[in-house]
Amino acid sequence: MGGMKILSRRRVRELQWFGLVLSIVTCWNVAPRTSELSRGHSPEPVSVNKPPGKLVALTFDDGPKPYVLMGRKSQKGVSSPSLLDLLDREGVKATFFVMGFRLADTANDFCRQIDVGINCRQAAEEEHRRGHEIENHTYGHGTFSKMAKRYGEDWILNDIDRASRIIQSLTGVRPRYIRPPDWDISETLRKEIEARGYHVMTKSKGDVSEAPALEDVDSQDYIYAKLRSPQSAAKTEHDYVLQRIDQRERKGICTHILVFHELPISVEVLSTLIPELKQRGYRFELLEDYMKSLAAAPK
Question: Of 17, 24, 33, 199, which has the most beta carbons under 10 Å away?
Fold first, then answer.
């Protein structure tokens, strides 16, 4: 029985090593086809004759949440390590898809329910100051199917533009990318949004189909955050994300848009995941730079 256990562990190590070698081979010279980049408003190709390599665009939804971004030491109530400090230590720039209403003055009391001395807008200003990208997650975070039934599609388009205006008042730049809440979007509405100059970030779902290199890779941190044991939840989420990346690598997909949320569990997971992905040869880029890297790859 003991021999079987030893053999089983050895076999697991062999399979892990094989998977790593396979990912190196399949990811050596992979670039998305031109047809994969034709959707939306991706940057124009430039004359750089090399593959994009192993890339990650690290993105976060549902912020800004000051206590997660700045950190809150263990005390009475909710605690979290600082996401921004972690990114600084790792030399990683990320892209934050924020809810517009959190940047308004009317959200001050809401944002300071877990108080770290600053409001949501000030936290977003700190994101921007540290060189991170801020993009659009709508103003009110209403799921599109429900909002369309209740108010009509024009309301959704105005909600997106309203978020863009308040984000631009902070960054000086109109957001280019929009991620629908819960990836809830139809192909028809997607085309309407893209006609306004946005690139819709989504995943293949319903009648929406997305190219693998441009598809969001959902960490499902919002599910794992609900598990009773925080330590077990972080380990399970960490393993799940690596499994998703391994699955994509085996298909020759070595560029990933990872989607997390501003949650304490995500900071814990990324404290180990970022170094591991770097060790595997991945570079982290802002979403805008990630898109440029894909567009610059030989077709």
Answer: 199
SS (H, E, C) 125-148: HHHHHCCCEEEECCCCCCCHHHHH
Give the pLDDT confidence score for residue 226 in this predicted structure.
Answer: 93
Enumerate residue ranges in the chain where pLDDT < 50. Answer: 1-25, 29-49
Strand partners, 60: 96, 260
Cα–Cα dist 259/179, whole Å:
10
Q: How far is CA 2 from CA 14, 61, 269, in A?
A: 18, 47, 33
Structure tokens that stand for 26 in this block: 């399949």
Cα separation values, 66 from 95, 134, 222, 252, 263, Å: 16, 15, 18, 38, 11
Phi, psi angles (nearest 5°) of residue 286: -60, 155
Nearest Cα residue to 176 out of 213, 136, 138 = 136
Tell me what pLDDT residue 8 has.
42
For 267, the 3-state DSSP assignment is helix
Question: Residue 76 has which token pair?
Answer: 């009475």
* CATH superfamily ID and name for 35-296: Glycoside hydrolase/deacetylase (3.20.20.370)
Beta strands in 42-145 (DSSP E): 55-63, 95-98, 133-136
Q: What is the pLDDT of residue 74?
A: 57
What does 228-260 look like in DSSP terms, one character per residue?
Answer: S-HHHHHHHHHHHHHHHHHHHHHTT--EEEEEE
**Residue 143 is encoded by which pair of tokens?**
């799921």
Nearest to 147 by CA among 169, 162, 167: 162
The full set of domain ranges for the chain reads 35-296
CB atoms within 10 A of CB 117: 9
How much is the pLDDT for 157?
98
The two three-digit tokens of residue 295, written as one number: 């567009």
* pLDDT at 83 (0 to 100): 98
Q: Helix 264-279 to helix 230-250 angle, to the nearest 10 degrees?
A: 40
